[in-house]
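Structure Section — protein described below
Tokens — whole-number codes for backbone shape
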Amino acid sequence: MKLTRWQSPVAANWSGISRLTDLRDEIDRLFEVPLAGLTQTSPWMSGWTPALDVYEDKDHFTVQAEVPGMKKEDIEVSLHEGTLTISGERKEEAKSEEGGLYRSERYFGRFQRAVDLPASVVGDKVKAEYRDGILTITLPKAEEAKPKQINVNAG
């Protein structure tokens, strides 16, 4: 009986392996991309979600959310365990008795946005201001989250 040492096949010798990998990647892309638009954060499934920006400087985080056409009483802001939550409800305006609706593209109803903050903040010093359809929330960083200047001593 003759023993031959086993060697793993080399993938480069089989030209079809790269085409199979490309096919698998393409199938994955086809299933992921269209379905990604139907997640719960999608406006098609949840009504609407306001666009927002988060800025950071050495002392604060600033969050700006677009919530035009709302009253400040219809907006709620909360902070819990490092997550800022903005929620509310945009109410539909009363319809005219004289004519019917020709076209409607605005979203109405409840919304909620949650933002995980990358550092701790001082919760009792958070300020929110609503002006011209923009909600601006200023969140002061906790002292331990602020950058520290370290002096280098010559020794």
